């Protein structure tokens, strides 16, 4: 008898599971259609409504390229007419979202930007922060390669200027939402139903190993989720101009991050499949996991907008950190190495969840 | 003609937390026979079967299947047996061909799914999902999945429960064919006419013990010799014969 091939068994399960997922309407609706609908809705209502009001300090230099680019952002409305005292007062009230002061220097760095945010408008402050970070990133990466003095290169470079659109905020959140749904609902349902309909028991009557069953199922869900992520990112990018700073590299970084997030969310699914008594108890249990994260993890609006007592809750949730990392990667051009803080928190969540999952998971 | 035992069960005990399901069962199944495990619900039939199938851990005793011990060689046993579980389901959303391909991956063998379906007369259902099949078709498909790895022994746990007389007779035919192809069959059933018709030998299990093991004919002869008489005179035909006579032999889907 030829030796038994575990990989073949694992792939057979992955293939069967993937087929089954694609034929299940709820999987496709919750993980693909809903996020896309939200993206379409928010991309359309969000775009015009959002604007960041920025005061330009009287002492600021206005001939520098950074200011020239910022001035042309549709979302940014720059005020120069107010006096410095008025600006400070308006910042205090939140009718101005920030005051910036750009100074030209003779040495390096060639420019310094001094930004004053306000606690009265944290959300828009964060938007501006993202925009400035990405703008500086672009300036710095374009200036350094030829080793020329930064001032010279900068004045010569024409910057297209990246616009921070609402889609840049909403898409990473919806991607996280999709991963959360596939991970939690999908995993919980499949393992409970395979256990209850004795499909797993029948599997055990074959030489298949337990880890093959788990790996095969995870592989199917990962493939489905990453395909979904590619669809969501593509629709966002081509239809709504979602910003991918470094193009395909950014997409790959986003997919790697999606993979990490999905592994954690599947851990929740394993736990629920173990503690759920029957199929009807899966939706409530899953909602306990997904709803708070859906609302509190910055899926629709920045977590900075929440009252301070809610901040620690929001900051404890894994989706918050996944969303933050995703936005940094997509818009600020960060690599996975730049979001180690978020990855570390996700890792801690992963360890905790799988420790519980190993205890609660049931085979029969 | 000396018969070769292919399954040996020796003093098998299965103890659950609050009761003992199997209390020291011993028997042998011979190669190439159809062996029936008979007995009321809760007698320990399914538990015994599942221990032999390596799906359940025994408390004590010895079981060897085709020369392999269930304690140390479960994997070799799994590769040599086919198992049909009472009321098992199949992976959701897949058609019969896809399910058979899944099982061929699980068993690590190459098969042509259509050949398997032809063996159980389900070729025309190749693209159907399991849940859309009739009761008889479901059981035939289950049996097809037990044949994928060309097993030495197949285990059928109440395969005819809930089937109409035509589907039942049709399944007997299939089981006989499998046996003629050289496969040993172990079956449980609640229908004594079925056991009498199908099995070469039967073991009666009650309260976790074997209370008798012999061929159906010998059992009946013994009972008659002991002076047993039926209250009602046995006629040349029974009501099931009438049913089949009136509705025809072809099974309905």
Automatic annotation (TrEMBL), chain A:
<dbReference type="InterPro" id="IPR047817">
    <property type="entry name" value="ABC2_TM_bact-type"/>
</dbReference>
<dbReference type="GO" id="GO:0140359">
    <property type="term" value="F:ABC-type transporter activity"/>
</dbReference>
<keyword id="KW-0812">Transmembrane</keyword>
<feature type="transmembrane region" description="Helical">
    <location>
        <begin position="288"/>
        <end position="310"/>
    </location>
</feature>
<dbReference type="InterPro" id="IPR052902">
    <property type="entry name" value="ABC-2_transporter"/>
</dbReference>
<keyword id="KW-1133">Transmembrane helix</keyword>
<dbReference type="InterPro" id="IPR013525">
    <property type="entry name" value="ABC2_TM"/>
</dbReference>
<feature type="transmembrane region" description="Helical">
    <location>
        <begin position="219"/>
        <end position="242"/>
    </location>
</feature>
<keyword id="KW-0813">Transport</keyword>
<feature type="domain" description="ABC transmembrane type-2">
    <location>
        <begin position="125"/>
        <end position="364"/>
    </location>
</feature>
<protein>
    <recommendedName>
        <fullName>Transport permease protein</fullName>
    </recommendedName>
</protein>
<dbReference type="GO" id="GO:0043190">
    <property type="term" value="C:ATP-binding cassette (ABC) transporter complex"/>
</dbReference>
<comment type="similarity">
    <text>Belongs to the ABC-2 integral membrane protein family.</text>
</comment>
<dbReference type="Pfam" id="PF12698">
    <property type="entry name" value="ABC2_membrane_3"/>
</dbReference>
<feature type="transmembrane region" description="Helical">
    <location>
        <begin position="254"/>
        <end position="276"/>
    </location>
</feature>
<keyword id="KW-1003">Cell membrane</keyword>
<dbReference type="InterPro" id="IPR000412">
    <property type="entry name" value="ABC_2_transport"/>
</dbReference>
<feature type="transmembrane region" description="Helical">
    <location>
        <begin position="175"/>
        <end position="194"/>
    </location>
</feature>
<feature type="transmembrane region" description="Helical">
    <location>
        <begin position="27"/>
        <end position="50"/>
    </location>
</feature>
<keyword id="KW-0472">Membrane</keyword>
<feature type="transmembrane region" description="Helical">
    <location>
        <begin position="343"/>
        <end position="361"/>
    </location>
</feature>
TrEMBL record, chain B:
<keyword id="KW-0067">ATP-binding</keyword>
<keyword id="KW-0813">Transport</keyword>
<keyword id="KW-0472">Membrane</keyword>
<protein>
    <submittedName>
        <fullName>ATP-binding cassette domain-containing protein</fullName>
    </submittedName>
</protein>
<dbReference type="InterPro" id="IPR003439">
    <property type="entry name" value="ABC_transporter-like_ATP-bd"/>
</dbReference>
<dbReference type="InterPro" id="IPR003593">
    <property type="entry name" value="AAA+_ATPase"/>
</dbReference>
<dbReference type="GO" id="GO:0016887">
    <property type="term" value="F:ATP hydrolysis activity"/>
</dbReference>
<dbReference type="Pfam" id="PF00005">
    <property type="entry name" value="ABC_tran"/>
</dbReference>
<dbReference type="GO" id="GO:0005886">
    <property type="term" value="C:plasma membrane"/>
</dbReference>
<feature type="domain" description="ABC transporter">
    <location>
        <begin position="7"/>
        <end position="232"/>
    </location>
</feature>
<dbReference type="InterPro" id="IPR017871">
    <property type="entry name" value="ABC_transporter-like_CS"/>
</dbReference>
<keyword id="KW-1278">Translocase</keyword>
<keyword id="KW-0536">Nodulation</keyword>
<comment type="similarity">
    <text>Belongs to the ABC transporter superfamily.</text>
</comment>
<dbReference type="InterPro" id="IPR027417">
    <property type="entry name" value="P-loop_NTPase"/>
</dbReference>
<dbReference type="GO" id="GO:0005524">
    <property type="term" value="F:ATP binding"/>
</dbReference>
<dbReference type="InterPro" id="IPR050763">
    <property type="entry name" value="ABC_transporter_ATP-binding"/>
</dbReference>
<keyword id="KW-0547">Nucleotide-binding</keyword>
<keyword id="KW-1003">Cell membrane</keyword>
């Amino acid at each position: 008898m030829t030796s038994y091939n575990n990989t073949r068994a694992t792939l057979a399960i992955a293939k069967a599971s993937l087929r089954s997922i694609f034929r299940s309407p709820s999987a496709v609706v919750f993980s693909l259609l809903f996020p896309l609908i939200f993206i379409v809705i928010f991309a359309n209502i969000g775009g015009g409504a959002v604007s960041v009001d920025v005061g330009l300090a009287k002492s600021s230099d206005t001939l520098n390229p950074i200011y020239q680019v910022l001035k042309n952002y549709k979302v940014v409305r720059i005020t120069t007419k107010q006096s410095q005292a008025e600006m400070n007062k308006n910042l205090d009230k939140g009718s101005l979202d920030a005051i910036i002061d750009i100074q030209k220097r003779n040495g390096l760095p060639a420019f310094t930007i001094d930004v004053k945010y306000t606690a009265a408008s944290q959300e828009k402050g964060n938007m501006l922060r993202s925009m400035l970070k990405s703008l500086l990133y672009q300036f710095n990466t374009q200036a350094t390669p030829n080793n020329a003095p930064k001032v010279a290169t900068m004045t010569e470079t024409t910057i297209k200027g990246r616009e921070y659109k609402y889609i840049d905020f909403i898409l990473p959140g919806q991607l996280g939402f999709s991963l959360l749904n596939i991970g939690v609902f999908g995993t919980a349902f499949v393992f409970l139903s395979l256990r209850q309909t004795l499909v797993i028991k029948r599997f055990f009557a074959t030489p298949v190993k337990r880890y093959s069953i788990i790996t095969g199922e995870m592989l199917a869900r990962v493939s489905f989720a990453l395909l979904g992520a590619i669809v969501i990112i593509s629709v966002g990018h081509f239809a709504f101009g979602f910003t991918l700073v470094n193009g395909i590299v950014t997409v790959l970084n986003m997919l790697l991050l999606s993979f990490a997030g999905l592994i954690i969310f599947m851990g929740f699914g394993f736990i629920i499949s173990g503690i759920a008594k029957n199929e009807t108890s899966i939706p409530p249990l899953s909602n306990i996991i997904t709803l708070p994260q859906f609302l509190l993890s910055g899926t629709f609006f920045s977590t900075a907008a929440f009252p301070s007592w809610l901040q620690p809750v929001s900051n404890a949730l894994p989706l918050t950190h996944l969303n933050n990392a995703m936005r940094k990667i997509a818009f600020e051009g960060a690599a996975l190495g730049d979001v180690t803080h978020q990855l570390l928190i996700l890792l801690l969540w992963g360890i905790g969840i799988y420790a519980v999952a190993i205890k609660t998971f049931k085979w029969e | 003609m000396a018969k070769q035992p292919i399954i040996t069960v020796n003093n098998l005990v299965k103890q659950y937390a609050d009761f003992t399901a199997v209390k020291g069962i011993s028997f042998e199944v011979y190669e190439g026979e159809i062996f029936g495990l008979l007995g009321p619900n809760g007698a320990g039939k399914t538990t015994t079967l599942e221990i032999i199938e390596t799906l359940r851990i025994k408390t004590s005793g010895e079981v060897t299947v085709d020369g392999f011990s269930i304690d140390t060689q479960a994997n070799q046993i799994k590769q040599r047996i086919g198992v049909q579980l009472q009321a098992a389901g199949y992976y959701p959303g897949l058609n019969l061909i896809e399910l058979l391909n899944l099982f061929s991956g699980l068993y690590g063998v190459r098969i042509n799914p259509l050949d398997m379906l032809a063996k159980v007369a389900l070729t025309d259902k190749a693209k159907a999902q399991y849940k859309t099949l009739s009761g008889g078709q479901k059981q035939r498909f289950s049996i097809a999945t037990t044949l994928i790895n060309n097993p030495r022994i197949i285990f059928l746990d109440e395969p005819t429960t809930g089937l109409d007389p035509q589907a039942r007779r049709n399944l007997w035919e299939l089981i006989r064919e499998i046996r003629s192809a050289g496969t040993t069959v172990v079956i449980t059933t609640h229908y004594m006419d079925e056991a009498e018709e199908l099995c070469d030998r039967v073991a009666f299990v009650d309260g976790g013990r074997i209370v008798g093991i012999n061929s159906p004919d010998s059992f009946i002869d013994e009972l008659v010799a002991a002076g047993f008489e039926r209250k009602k005179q046995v006629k040349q035909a029974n009501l099931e014969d009438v049913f089949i006579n009136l509705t025809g032999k072809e099974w309905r889907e």
